[in-house]
Amino acid sequence: MTRREKVLTYLEKCALSMDQGITTSELSEAIGVLRPNVSNVLNQLVREGKVKKTNGRPVHYFMNSEEGERGFMLEQKPNIGFAGDARIRNQSIKMKSTAKKNKVDVFDNMIGSRDSLKNQVEQAKAALLYPPHGLNTLIIGPTGSGKTYFANKMYHFALDREIISKKGFTTFNCADYAHNPQLLMSHLFGYVKGAFTGANADKDGLIQEADGGMLFLDEVHRLPPEGQEMIFYFMDHGTYSRLGETAKVHHADVRLVYATTEDPKSSLLQTFVRRIPIIIQLTDFNQRSAREKLQLLEQLLTLEANRIHKNIRLSEDVVQALLGSVTYGNVGQLKSNIQLVCAQGFLNSMRNKNEITLIFSQLPPNIKDGLSNLANNRQELGNLSRLLEPTMVIKPDAERGLPDSDSYELPYNLYEIIGDKAALLKDEGLDQAAINNFIMTDINLHLKSFYRQGKLERNVSSLNEIVDQEIIDLTKRIQLLLQERESYPVRDNFIYAMSLHISSFIKRVQSGKPLRTIPADLISMVHDYPAELKIAEHVKDLIEDHYHFPIPESEVYYMAILFVSLKSEPKTGKVGIVVAAHGNSTASSMVHVVSQLLSVDNIAAYDMPLEMSPKVALDGIAEQVKKIDQGNGVLLLVDMGSLNTFSSKLTEKTNVHVKTIDMVTTAMVLEAARKTALIDSDLKTVYRELRQFDGYAQTIEKVHRKKNYVQTISNQREKAIIAICSTGEGTARRIKDLLDKILVDNLIDDIRVITVSVVTMNEQIAKIQQNYQIVATTGVVKPEVAAPFVSLENLLQGGGESFIGLVEKINNHTAHEAEDLEHSDLLTEEMSQNYLGQYFTFINPAKIVKVLWNYCDFIQHRSKSKMSNAFKISLIMHIAGAIERYLTRSEMSVDEQKRSNVRTEKLYPIVKQANEVLHETLNINLSDSEVYYIVALFKTEKEKNDTQNN
Amino acid sequence: MTMDVRLLRIDSRLLHGQVTTNWAKAINVNRILVVSDRVANDQTRKTLIVQAAPPGIRANVITVEKMIRIYHDPRFDILKPMILVEDPVDARRIVEGGITIDSVNIGAISFDTTRVMVTDAIAVNVADVEAFKWFHDHGIKLDVRKVSSDSSKNLWKSLSEKGLV
């Protein structure tokens, strides 16, 4: 069936069921033909008179039937038909047109509203329509997934349905003032004259401004806890106070919509999240269907076409490259990339009045990469190809609207700037090539300055928590050199991959670790890439210049391989990585960090809540292993020993070769991702190298072997730490004194520190091993011992505490459970109830725990300071004790002096109020002595937090 | 010189909130040792207890065996600890292990089905009574106080009144 036939058949079918006809978009979706193509066919059919269209917007099309009694709303005068019939019809149309205002659904023309975003749209509507004032809504989605756009749609929906009384969509990005919470709060809530220096007059905040409308708070995780508390008070009561006021006297009726890129469980107060019943999760661009991706592309191109008032013509491969160029930034990134290529196309097609053409060979390298990215995903490519025509023409189409303002929109009209500049340069007599060259530099500048404000910048800043700024700067210089002189295509992840590589080998050189040898197959491989080898030589010179020490020849080879890898990045054959760790989000947060930093795709996470059985965990991990395997084996990184038997079982279950490394850290996941990204990597090599990584990783097998060894051969052997210096008497002695003190402080009595001289090191160590189990080594050289080695710098900088932490980790002491506690209110509540039952005689744990939980929340809310869950348990237990003392008439006593002193404490009135609530609920009156102890409990906690923070 | 144990206290809840802070300040200790085999193997409870330590004083959770070991190890003589145990039986094991004290403080022992209430905060079972007898026979005072400023009551008297000893 041709497109034309498809359109006609569908319109005929519609004629029977629909009165109003159908829009281009609806038709395009229904028959699976791209919108511009449908539009072409329709226009042709209208010209031929086979199809008619309505006057209003959006335009509806329908078959031109003989009767024509529908002409009421048509371009043509209606024919006279059977009078009665016409009247009925007219009435029905009239009714429809009055109802139309309420009928039009702004979500309908949002791409994916019937597909990938169907649930989200339903949620949004439910949230808005819920009587009487709607529900608070939080939109979660990665960068560029369209949170602002979605919120905007919600606003228009609310406006159309007359849910909100006032026009006004107020947006506020909480990140804007994140460094200055006071300023942020004053923007939101307003302030009174004199509230702070410079507050010369009363000022309303955004909340007041948005009264009767909608307020959108973006990046809400950047709102400080006290701000979240003020907001949730406002959610609960509709009242708030301006800065500098004590009473919450102001009232505003505001629809609140929040957005965040973070996991709300870990980035927002639980008390805050609890008050948001609707959480809308937006979809990643790459998880949308091929059809939706195309529709998005087409819509974004139409925006550009509207701006330049020309058609945009692009070939199939340009479409593919554009779609494939979206790596981390979702629709936002697609929009930026489209702007870039359109600007370029605009410049190149300046002479053509009607059309600009986008040609693959002229695309910038990072967009061209998109094609190979896409080509790696066969299935996706297949789906896409089925929908694509060899060329696509996008026409300006006012119906599709002008862009909403969002952060991906340039603040000026780039095309006007390009046009003006080109005209100017032409007047000055420059030739076209020179003009193009000139302006292209300009465009890149514009778009780069704009890109910089986005996510990329934030990623680099998180990189410098791991790598020295000096190395990042050096890498940036290398990047510049490669771009300008070597025409090496530099990608998004270049800075990360390269700076991590430099950092790790500089550290290697500096810490005097043995140099890597160059395997023969590496040499032969690099010789297939002479260009990269040459680049590597240049980069080596640059690094040598910078650090003033010689870089070993072997590094040139490794760097060459890195350049080759970064350039081609083949999808098949990479070693997969699965991170599995106890805790609700431990594994996924590590993987999240790493995949954001390195934009790798060969890594998966598996979270294991504490209550999960090993059987379920094994199945879950097996599934991840299968998913991530690319035929080259999978590296399993786990957090502790209980998973050590999994390797072989997994291999059995999945037929995938699996190797396990334990004690996973974020740094290790990074290193693993980096190593597996190299094209010459295989599971065995990566596994071997990772085991040596920084010396603190221990393989499961090794620990296992050691355990068995210890158990069978000498269960009673004492543990020892070996400290090495040249004489065994100088530095080593000082290390011993330092470590002995720390060991005592940590109550570790079963580890000896033994000093050893370099000269006779091997014999001494062999002797020591007969009587001791060596758990760690430190000093000036690393001995050949199967135990972690800590360099002197690390030992001395960390004050030795982290060293002992390491030793404790080897003994399998981990604190994941307690970390979990801080993330789970449910767990805390359960645990409180458990302890209440265990330690108290007369009170009913199940009933009292809720009351006491609310007691904590009340104080937390009033005092505007967050309690840790551990402290909450403490407080709950204490209040339960006070209640039981009250019931058994054995309350604590405190002398009058202390009782009167406590009345001046800041917390005293708050505790009194909380007790008043307790009185209302349980008819129990705690004495002033008990109040003294409650306040004292808070004071102690605060004191402790203060000393910890200093 | 041996380790100067400033207080041996029985409290089912071990280290908790204000009560411990009060004692720690009153008797000048530089370490809190929570001694319980059960808690030493319960990671969550261990973490909670360590976190609940008063400002400036470190707390450790160790087994009874380790308590006795480090008491006799001169490297640990610098500690001036307050020792917290869950029940009289653990307290007796510690003293039997050689730790010298002249009185044992009893704060609270939680009621459960094996126990009977002796005072408003102290419940005992057969094993507890057995341990208290042992202390009494060895001339160790059974001092009942919640916080240091309370007036001291002798538990032996309460046990006798109840007819338990």
Word description of this protein:
The complex is a heterodimer of chains A (950) and B (165). By secondary structure, chain A is of the alpha/beta class. Chain A contains 41 helices and 22 strands. The longest helix of chain A has 22 residues. About 9% of the residues of chain A have low confidence. In chain B, helix 5 runs parallel beside helix 6. By secondary structure, chain B is of the alpha/beta class. At the A-B interface, helix 31, helix 35, helix 36, helix 38 and helix 41 of A face helix 1, helix 3, strand 3 and helix 4 of B.
Give structural attributes.
heterodimer; A: 950 residues; alpha/beta; Arc Repressor Mutant, subunit A; Rossmann fold; 7 domains; five-stranded parallel sheet; four-stranded parallel sheet; B: 165 residues; Fructose Permease; seven-stranded mixed sheet; two-stranded antiparallel sheet; 7 helices; 9 strands; 36% helix; globular
